[in-house]
Amino acid sequence: MEYISDRITIDNDLCNGKPTIRGKRITVQTILEFLSAGDSPQDILKQYPSLEMADINACLKFAAGFMNNRFTIKSFVNA
């Protein structure tokens, strides 16, 4: 298991290698999807009592940090 931060981990044998929260079977993606759907952090904490507010904040920080990467769009032309 590799720690990306103190709360975000990646393990190839857990959730297909997606970033998870503290080695649990709760992915960063899941939390971000709940937030983007309009759920409040308090709603998420009720659904996942093993999480802490710091876990949700770590997911947001992880996503924001990911956006520091440079992305290139490649165009494919059918020949």
Walk me through this protein's architecture.
There is one protein chain. By secondary structure, this protein is mainly alpha-helical. It has a single domain, classed as Winged helix-like DNA-binding domain superfamily/Winged helix DNA-binding domain (Arc Repressor Mutant, subunit A, Orthogonal Bundle), CATH 1.10.10.10. The protein has helices spanning 28-36, 41-47, 53-66; strands spanning 2-3, 8-10, 20-21. A 3-stranded antiparallel beta sheet has the order 1-2-3. α1 crosses α3 (53-66). The longest helix is centred in the last third of the chain and has 14 residues, at 53-66. It is globular. The termini are far apart.
Topology overview:
Layout (H helix, E strand, L loop, with lengths): L1 E2 L4 E3 L9 E2 L6 H9 L4 H7 L5 H14 L13
Antiparallel strand pairs: 1-2, 2-3
Helix pairs in contact: 1-3
